[in-house]
Design brief:
With 153 residues, this protein is mainly alpha-helical. It is built from six helices and two strands, in the order ααββαααα. It is 53% helix and 10% strand. It is globular, with a radius of gyration of 15 Å.
């Protein structure tokens, strides 16, 4: 299986998992459950450098480049937002920087998240995705220079 097929499979699994639920309340509960499964960040990583700007809640997103793949860890002080960022970590973690920058975000609409969030939360979600893509671009330039491992930016 090619890496692109694995990436698509990961996204398909997320879409299938959420589309098992017919109503938004069940999807909401699945998001919260996803967030509860997210390993919390250490307090030393909950710093301004890793904070996602433009979110109503506090969200931290910590990137690492390991063997040419980007690994994300994240946390939030709000239950629903933690679920959203956990979903993004699930979708984007383990991809190469090029795959991150090329990954379509349409799956978020496919699972119904974008239509059921408040305007502030929708903006926060867009900022989280933007931050993930920016980390992808930053790591892409490092990988182009032959750097495969960076503990964090």
């Amino acid at each position: 299986m090619t890496q692109e097929a694995k990436n698509n499979n990961k996204i398909e699994q997320i879409v299938e998992r959420f589309n098992r639920f017919s109503d938004w309340e069940d999807r909401y509960r699945e998001l919260i459950k996803t967030g509860k499964g997210l390993e919390p960040l250490e307090e030393s990583q909950k710093i301004e450098k890793f904070q996602v700007r433009g979110c109503q809640s506090q969200v931290w997103l910590v990137p690492e480049l390991k063997d040419g793949k980007v690994i994300f860890r994240a946390d939030s002080d709000a239950v629903l937002v933690k679920g959203i960022v956990a979903l993004l970590v699930e979708a984007y973690s383990g991809l190469s920087p090029e795959e991150i920058t090329a990954q379509d975000t349409g799956f978020l609409k496919d699972i119904g998240i974008t239509e059921h969030l408040s305007m502030n939360r929708t903006n926060g979600l867009a900022n989280m995705v933007k931050q993930i893509k920016m980390y992808g671009i930053a790591f892409q330039s490092l990988v182009a220079k032959g750097i495969q491992n960076v503990p964090t930016l």
